[in-house]
Amino acid sequence: MSILSRIAGFFLLLCCFFSLCAADSVTGKVQNLTTGHPAAGDEVVLLRLAEGMEAEASTRTDADGAFTLPLATPSAQYVVRVIHQGVNYDQNLSGSAQLEVSVFDAAAKVPGLRGNLGIVKVESADEMLKITEMYSISNASSPQVTQTGPRNFEFSLAQEAKLDSFQARKAGGVWLNLTPTPVKGKQGTWAVNFPLRHGETLFKFTYRLPYDGLATLHVKLAYPIENFAVVHPPALNFRALRTNSFTSPGLVQGMKLEQAVAKPVVREVPAFEISGVGVASATQAESAPEAPPSFPASTNSNPAKSSPASVSVANPSQSQMWLVIAGISAVLFAGVAGWWRSKKSIVALGMKAESVIASLKQALDQLEVEKKRGEISAEQYDSTRQALDMSLRRAVARSKS
Fold first, then answer.
1. Looking at the domain assignment, is residue 319 inside a domain?
2. In 10 A of CB 20, how many CB atoms?
3. Is residue 321 included in any domain, yes or no?
């Protein structure tokens, strides 16, 4: 064998060696977007997703914000968690490319927090009223910071309410089950210490109330909500207790939409009355635990040093929160297209076209992520993609007109 052939063979083996090494490790850099500098000295944890989150390896970023972690099972599903000033920043591990993780400095209070979207889904069955509240809260702070504290998100429940679940996540992040705690001095008020990172944070909680066929609901809000709506099966009757506080554009995907007139809705939603019996069909309803626990939910340990509210990974098949939020965008835009045409103005709904387009594009991006992770069925993907595509085309057309 010639010297040239031996050298070529050596380099081939060397390339294979480094290729194998790359497959057995994960590298990345952490950037502090508050300061604009690399985040040095932050703890980085490699979490393997199975029944929950299992910490497999950990390290700290160097002076350049760089890190390397060993990867025991490259074929497994992993999340890389960076802990900066006590706040978790999670990123799904996909492929062998170097990760770029952004973190923000923590602040006790961020002024101007508000929700872009809020929805209350109501249905009744078995002498119980099932209520699901969902919110997308926006942190547009400048400089970019994360709000963190024991009362980052507060909600109120009637004394007889039983909580099914409470979940939250950063848009594009991992769903977490949370354990609310009572707020001292405020009866019936509960809070979760889930950080409000820069950008969108999604919250969803479901609870049940004893129901004899008639109920009055008073929904209180943690933050002002720009676009708020109630959705319910058509068989269930909705009546606003204050004149002209809601509009009823019609049916969207088999559910009736009741939209709050005020924009934003602040502190408390105008009271409304629910009567009759009505349950969402299988295609309209999300999966939920069959046996809801008494409130509050039990606490689970988390070996990955998560923030106090982060107790476990939510089952994706039981928590398609983003698809519901994406559906709200379609509801508030495409679902009332006929009503808009009669009014000949998008301003009638008080929404800015640019904001709608941005929200719909974000929803489409997240839909692709959910599909890639296998968290939605092909049927769910196709129907949601079609609705969002149509909504986006209409939004773009209206922004030009």
1. no
2. 10
3. no
pLDDT at res. 7: 44
In a domain, 32, yes or no: yes
Q: Which residues contact 216 (CB under 8 A, 6 or more apart)?
A: 241, 271, 272, 273, 274
**Whole-number pLDDT of residue 339:** 32
End-to-end alpha-carbon separation of the chain, Å? 74
Res 367: pLDDT = 75
pLDDT for the residue numbered 182:
92
Nearest to 274 by CA among 218, 206, 328, 229: 218
165 and 299 in a single domain? The answer is yes
Q: How far apart are CA 151 and CA 201, in angstroms?
A: 15
Residues 46 and 178 in one domain: no
Residues 37, 88: one domain?
Answer: yes
Contact 289, 164 (CB under 8 A): yes
CA distances from 87 to 61, 107, 182, 309, 358 (A): 15, 11, 22, 11, 27
Contacts of 67 by beta carbon, 8 Å cutoff, 6+ apart: 27, 28, 29, 30, 44, 59, 60, 61
Is the domain of 233 the same as that of 341?
A: no
Write down the pTM of the prediction.
0.69
Looking only at the bridges linking them, the beta strands covering 105-107 and 214-217 are unpaired
Q: Is there a domain that residue 81 lies in?
A: yes
Does residue 167 share a domain with residue 53? Answer: no
pLDDT of residue 390: 66
The answer to whether residues 276 and 124 touch, using CB atoms and an 8 Å cutoff, is yes
Low-confidence stretches of the chain (pLDDT < 50) are: 4, 7-8, 10-22, 283, 285-311, 315-326, 329-351
